[in-house]
Backbone:
């Protein structure tokens, strides 16, 4: 049976782009996303099938103070069993309408939780803080856009030309911009940690209030004018998305649509759409395991503070285990494949390589790297790994192949030409 999100995507692709959007550019965006998705899945699989990776993870979990006693990590262990054993890419449709990757199902989360595309805001910790961040995040965004312009939706992967920041003058193009094109045509994302100084007020507030942020996907999402995204599911059941509008073209111009099965059956005739209109400062919670799409019917761009948070049913210990797991995965991507993980800026990564912070697991966990951290970590045999940097390479002992054996060559140091970016937005960020 074709998954529901795939059925919905067909008409969405036909109606999703206005006359002002260029179909060739949309096709290029779709091709780019498929390539990014394939690359991200390949890196994930290399980690999940590597004995060295799992030894490294267990060492970091212990260092984080997580003791394996009783059944404190029973659900988490079932989750990692799925990562190791389920076939990559297999999607199942649940009676609720959710679309999940079997490999990434976190078990037994819904015992006391009713699944719906739009959970009540007051049931999700941290949402009041996100809403209260809207004003400062908006001011920081407008200032950041003057120095970090959007990428060109229609052309090569470079920054746009002059932009109007509302100051009455056009600002010059920047060749190096932290904005990422991904997911679908007209959508761009700026991770907060890629512009830490620009968003220092927002970051400080999120940290001070201990918002249960998921693994790094915290930033500003832009949707271009007169644009509708494709219907998709992020396929993970352990995360929720929050959208806090910062700039909208006008009242009732932007929103999110979620799709569920109204009576719990699998028939497409029972599809139930729900819409949440985006208003400035009003946080919306989206369970992105349901098929969903965003739209902007306005005549200018829409910007939201977008933060993924852990599912409320996860215990603090499980959240820490997940955070450590995906941080290990990102470090693995750098050292084994010279991949710059999603959300980490090029300049930040280069500085971290020079300082040795890339060895510290906390570097990979943070929404920003403002806190001092160690530059060495323990490896499974009890010795310390040292980072030796040169102009072109990062050396971390003997690189390992996915099966745990020796890997030929060494991963490249992140430079302007040396490190690729691993991106998964729009089809499951983690």
Residues:
């Amino acid at each position: 049976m074709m998954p529901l999100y795939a059925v919905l995507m067909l008409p969405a692709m036909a109606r999703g782009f206005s006359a002002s959007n260029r179909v060739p550019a949309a096709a290029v965006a779709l091709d780019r996303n498929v390539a990014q998705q394939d690359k991200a899945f390949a890196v994930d699989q290399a980690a999940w099938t590597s004995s060295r990776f799992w030894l490294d993870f267990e060492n970091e979990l212990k260092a984080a103070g997580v003791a394996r006693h009783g059944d404190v990590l029973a659900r988490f262990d079932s989750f990692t069993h799925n990562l190791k054993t389920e076939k990559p890419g297999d999607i199942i449709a649940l009676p609720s309408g959710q679309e999940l990757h079997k490999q990434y199902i976190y078990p037994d989360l819904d015992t006391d939780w009713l699944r719906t595309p739009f959970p009540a805001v007051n049931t999700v910790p941290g949402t009041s803080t996100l809403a209260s961040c809207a004003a400062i995040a908006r001011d920081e965004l407008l200032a950041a856009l003057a120095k970090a312009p959007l990428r060109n939706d229609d052309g090569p992967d470079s920054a746009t030309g002059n932009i109007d920041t509302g100051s009455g003058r056009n600002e010059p193009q920047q060749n190096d911009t932290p904005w990422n094109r991904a997911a679908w045509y007209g959508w761009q994302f700026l991770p907060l940690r890629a512009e830490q100084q620009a968003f220092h007020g927002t970051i400080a507030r999120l940290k001070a209030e201990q918002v249960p942020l998921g693994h790094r996907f915290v930033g500003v999402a832009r949707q271009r004018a007169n644009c509708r995204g494709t219907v998709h599911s992020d396929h993970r059941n352990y995360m929720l998305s929050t959208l806090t509008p910062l700039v909208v073209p006008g009242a009732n111009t932007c929103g999110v649509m979620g799709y569920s099965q109204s009576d719990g059956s699998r028939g497409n005739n029972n599809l139930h759409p729900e819409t949440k209109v985006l208003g400035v400062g009003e946080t919306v919670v989206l369970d992105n395991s349901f098929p969903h799409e965003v739209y902007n019917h306005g005549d200018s761009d829409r910007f939201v503070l977008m933060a993924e948070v852990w599912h409320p049913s996860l215990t603090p210990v499980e959240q820490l285990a997940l955070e450590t797991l995906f941080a290990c995965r990102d470090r693995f991507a750098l050292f084994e494949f010279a991949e710059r993980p999603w959300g980490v800026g090029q300049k930040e990564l280069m500085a971290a390589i020079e300082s040795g912070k890339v060895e510290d697991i906390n570097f990979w966990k943070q929404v920003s790297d403002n806190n001092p951290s160690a530059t060495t970590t323990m490896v499974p045999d009890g010795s310390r790994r040292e980072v030796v940097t040169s102009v072109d390479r990062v050396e971390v002992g003997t690189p390992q192949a996915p099966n745990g054996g020796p890997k030929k060559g060494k991963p490249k140091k992140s430079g302007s030409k040396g490190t690729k970016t691993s991106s998964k937005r729009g089809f499951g960020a983690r």
Remarks:
- The chain has a mean pLDDT of 77.
- The CA atoms of residues 220 and 305 lie 5 Å apart.
- Residues 45-94+314-422 form one domain.
